[in-house]
């Protein structure tokens, strides 16, 4: 097995030093940004896979709600709304309240 030439070790050390310096600068910028505008911080990291899946699932449910609502309005004389349901219903019927005759 051949050993690495002595000139190759220096660029690796230089890379590590540069990456460490960039990380320090990134932290300093994030800290100064959070101090200047606490409510408007911008995330420099990418969203996690779970967040991506949740967003895709919400978009899929929204598309299903829209299709179900359109189908219900087309094939029924009633009125329906989209609303989250604890039973998994995508749309709910709206029933009017009738005042009792006195």
Automatic annotation (TrEMBL):
Keyword rRNA-binding carried by entry:
no
Read off the InterPro entries from this record: SOSSC
The listed locations are: Nucleus
Which UniProt keyword terms apply here? DNA damage, DNA repair, Nucleus
Q: Listed GO cellular component terms?
A: nucleoplasm; SOSS complex
List membrane-spanning regions: none
Instruction: Please name the GO terms of the biological process aspect recorded for this protein, alphabetically.
Output: DNA repair; response to ionizing radiation
> What does the protein in this record do?
Component of the SOSS complex, a multiprotein complex that functions downstream of the MRN complex to promote DNA repair and G2/M checkpoint. The SOSS complex associates with single-stranded DNA at DNA lesions and influences diverse endpoints in the cellular DNA damage response including cell-cycle checkpoint activation, recombinational repair and maintenance of genomic stability. Required for efficient homologous recombination-dependent repair of double-strand breaks (DSBs).
What binding partners and quaternary form does the record give? Component of the SOSS complex.
Q: What family is reported?
A: Belongs to the SOSS-C family.
| Name of the protein described by the UniProt record | SOSS complex subunit C
